[in-house]
Specification:
Strand content of chain A: under 5%
Strand order of the largest sheet of chain A: 1-2
Oligomer: heterodimer
Order of helices and strands of chain A: HHHHHEHHHHEHHH
Number of helices of chain B: 17
Radius of gyration of chain A: 21 Å
Helix content of chain A: over 70%
Amino acid sequence: MSDTTLGKTGTGKSALLSAETMQKAVAFVVLIALIAFFSAFASNFATGANMVGIMQATAVNGVLGVAVTFVIISGGIDLSVGTMMTLTAVMAGIILTNLGMPLPIGIIGAILSGALMGAISGATIAKLKIPPFIATLGMMQIARGLALVFSGAKPIYFNDTPNYGLLSPESSISMLIPGIEIPNGVMIMFIVAIIASIVLNRTIIGRMIFALGSNEEAARLSGINVDRWKILTYAICGGICGIAGLIVSSRLNSAQPALGLGYELDAIAAAVIGGTSLAGGRGTVIGTIIGAFIMSVLTNGLRVMGVLEEWKIVVTGVIIIVAVFIDIVLRKRA
Amino acid sequence: MSDKGEPNARRPVVEMLGIEKSFPGVRALNNVRFDLYPGEVHALMGENGAGKSTLMKILTGVYQPDAGEIRVDAAPVALPGPNAAQALGISIIHQELFLMNHLSAAQNIFIGREPRKGFGIFVDEDQMKRDAAAIFQRMKVNIPPGAEVGHMTVARQQLVEIAKALSYNARVLIMDEPTSALNETEVEHLFTVIDDLKAHGVGIVYITHKMDEVKRIADRVTVMRDGQYIDTLPAATTPMSTIIQLMVGRELADQHRATGHGTEEEVLRVTGLCRGTAIRDVSFSLRRGEILGFAGLMGAGRTEVARAVFGADPIDRGTIHVRGQERRIATPADAVAEGIAYLSEDRKHFGLVTGMSVRDNITMASWYRYISGRFFMRDAVMDGVAKEYVEKLRVKTPSVGQITRLLSGGNQQKVVIGKWLLRDCDILMFDEPTRGIDVGAKAEIYRLLEQLAAQGKAIIVISSELPEVLRLSHRIAVMCEGRITGELDGRTATQEEIMTLATQRNAAAA
C-alpha cells in the first residue's frame, strides 16, 4: 500500500513542478518569439535606440509589477500602485525642489511615503476587514487626489537636482562598459527584482506571504499574527511603488501629478502573464519581469509596424486572457 | 392532500425497498427499507453516518440508488432529480434553511412560479400574497406574507419553508432535525403545526437525535446503523433504552479499551465557558498524560468548545486556567504561546497549507526560530528538523520537500501533529483525529495519541465515533446542545451510557 502511495505522489509532484516552470518557459518563449517576429517584419524595431526605449518603458511597469506581485501572492490585490507611484513622485518633487533637500532624502522620502500609504491599505484590509479590491480602489483615488493637492495640480520639475537623471535615463553602466547602453532605470528594475526574489524565496517575509496566499486561516490557526504580515506585505508593495515613482519622474525630469491611472492594470497584467495566480499562493518575480517585457515589446513592436494605438490596447487585453487560459490548462494537466 | 380521510389511508404513501447505495470506498446503504403512511410521523434515528441523510437524498431525487425500488401510492416511480420528487409531493425541510433573505415570505414560497398578470409580463404580487396567506391560515400560523424573511426568527423562517412545501401540495414532508435551532416555545409551536399537518394526511419523516421529541410526536421509529436497516418500532411503547441499544448495536467486547489514566497534575481548567447558544456554561479540566474524550452528536458544541479554548472564536464568558494560572486567550497565537494546539477535522482548510511543502508545514508554527540575520530562513536547518519529525512520526513522503496536498489523509494528520510537537505544545485538542483516514492508518494514529499521552501530553479527542472515543479516552465528557450533560470513566463507560447522555435535552450535569 505504501508503494502505491509513494508512486502516486511521486508522479504528482513532477507534473506539478513542470506546470510551474512551464508557465514561465511559455512566457519566455513567447517573449523571444515576439522579438524575433518584430525584428523580422518591422525594420526599425531591432535598432539600439528602440531597444533602449523598450527597456525604459519596461522599467516602470516592471517595478510596479514586482510590487503588486507581493500582494497578489499573499492573496490580495492592489489597485492603487499606479497612483501611489504618482504620489511618491510628487513627494520626491516637494522634498527636492520645493524644500531643496539633498537627493538621498528625496529617495528615502518617496519610498517611505509609499510604504506608509501601503501600510494604511494593509491595515484597512486586515483590521477593518474591507476586501482588498475595495480598500485599494479607495486608496487609488486617495493617492490620486493627494498627488494633485500636494502639487497644486502642476508638474514639479527637478531642474535644481542635476543628478536626478541618474535614477532613470542615464546609463552608468555604459561608462564602465562602453556600448552597453542600459539605462539606470532598467538596472534599478533588475536590482529590485533580484532583491524581491530573495525576499520572497529566502526570508521569513516571503514565507509568510506564500502561507497567507495559500491558506490564510490555516496560518492563523498555526498561531501566526496574520494581520501584521498582511500590513507588512502592502507596505512593501507601497515602498516599491515609491521606487517606480522615482524612476518615472526621473525619466520625465518632473513629477506629473495627473499621471498614474491605468498603470495598475498594466502591472497586474504583467504579473498574471508571468504566471502569478490571482487566487494567491503562487507566483514569481522573474515571471512578472518577463510579463512586463512581453507587454512593452508588443506595444512597441505594433507601434513600429504602424498599427493604430487603439489596437494595441485590444491586443494587450487578448494577451492577458490567453495567458490566464494557458495557466489554467497547465494546472489542469498537473 | 388527496388521501385526506379516505379509506385507503392505510396504504403507505411511500415505500422504499432494498435500497443500495455505494460511494467510492464506502457502502452507504445496504438493503435498506422504509415506509411512510399518510398522516403519520415516522422518526428516523441513528448515529452520525448511519445513512439517514443518504436515504432521504435518494427519496428526494438528489442521489440515485444503485439498486432498490421506490413506490409512491404503491406504484414504482423513478426520481431522476429533485423536481421529480417535488412533482410527486415529496418535500424536504433542511436543517440549514434555503431561503432568500431579502425577499418576502410570499416571494420565497412562490419563487420561480409566481402568479402573473398583464399578459404574463408582470408578477401578480397581490395574488401571491393572498395565496401565501391562505397557506399560513391553513397552518394556523400568523405570518404577514409581505414580511422580509431575513428579519424573521429561525422558527418563523422554518414555517415559511413548510408553507413552501405545502404550496407544492406536499404529501410527504421530510424534516431534518427541525428543532436544533429552536427554543422551547418555538418547538411546541412547531409540534402543533406538525399535529395539524398529520390531521390533514401529510406523512412526515422526522430525522432527530432527541428521544423526548420522538416520544412526543412520532408514531413509529426506524433505526439505522452503519448503512443498514435495523428495525421499525412503535414510538409510544418502545423504551428509550431499547432504541439507544439498537442505534449503537455493535459488540465492543473484543475491542481494545483505554486502560491508563492521567496524572494528578491539572494543566487545563475551563470554567463557565459560554458563547451564544453554541456553548452553554461548559466547565472541565484536563490533566497531564490524560486523554479526555468529547463525545456527542453532530452540532452538540464540541468543536465550538475546542475552538473557543484555542482563541479561534470569541467567547461571551468563562475563564481558562493553564497550569494553574488564569490566562486570557483571544487569538490562536495566545493559545499557541501557552502550548495549546487545536487540530481541526478539516485538515485541508484549517490544518495545512496544502500548497506548501512538508517541511514548511511542520515548521510553520515555529518559523520564528529558524531565522538568521533577522530575515533569512534557515532552510537547511529546517530540512533537518522536518526530517527528524517525518522519521519520528513515520510520515510516508518521498521527501520533506513534497507538497502536502499530495500526501494521504493519515500522513497529512501526522504532519499537523509534527507541527505542534515541534512547537512544544503539550495540550493537544484533536477534532475527529481519524476522519478521512483509512483503517490501517487509523490504528497508527491511535497508537501515536497513546504514546503522546504516555509522554506526558494532555490530550482532548473530539470524536463522533463511539468506538473511537471508548478506545482512546481515559475520561469521557458527553455534550448535548452546547452543554456537558455528563462525564464518564473511559474504562467502564458503555456506548449506551454515552448515547443516553448525548440525547438528553437540558439535563443537569451528572
